[in-house]
């Protein structure tokens, strides 16, 4: 059941990040991939800076969304310089 929640949080976080950064989503599979990578990146960043969201569904969604936004901004920055 935890795996299904992880996929669901990845989907929602990827869709939210797509709306915030680019103005649109990336499709279901793209949103899931962006959200999952964003969750890993967000978890790393939050741990590095010593920030805690208290856990739970909302905390995980916040961390994953912020990580996905950072990921999309990083991808956009790399594409601009290429």
Draw up the topology in text:
Layout: H1 2-21, H2 27-48, H3 56-81
Helix pairs in contact: 1-2, 1-3, 2-3
How does the helix and strand content classify structurally?
A: mainly alpha
Order of helices and strands: HHH
Q: Which range best describes the helical content: under 10%, 10-25%, 25-40%, 40-55%, 55-70% or over 70%?
A: over 70%
Oligomer: single chain
Number of strands: 0
Shape: globular
Q: State the end-to-end distance.
A: 41 Å
Report mean pLDDT, rounded to a whole number.
Answer: 90
Rg from alpha-carbon coordinates: 12 Å
Strand content: under 5%
Our count of helices gives 3
Low-confidence stretches: none
Main β-sheet, in a few words?
Answer: none
Structural description of this entry:
It is built from three helices and no strands. Helix 2 (27-48) packs across helix 3. Helices cover 83% and strands 0% of the residues. The chain has helices spanning 2-21, 27-48, 56-81. By secondary structure, it is mostly helical. The longest helix is centred in the last third of the chain and has 26 residues, at 56-81. The mean pLDDT is 90.
């Amino acid at each position: 059941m935890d795996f299904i929640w992880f996929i669901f949080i990845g989907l929602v976080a990827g869709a939210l990040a797509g709306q915030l950064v680019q103005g649109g989503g990336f499709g279901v599979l793209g949103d899931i991939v962006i959200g999952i990578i964003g969750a890993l990146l967000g978890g790393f960043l939050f741990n590095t800076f010593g920030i805690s969201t208290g856990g739970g569904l909302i905390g995980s969604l916040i961390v994953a969304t912020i990580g996905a936004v950072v990921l999309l901004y990083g991808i956009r920055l790399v594409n601009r310089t290429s």
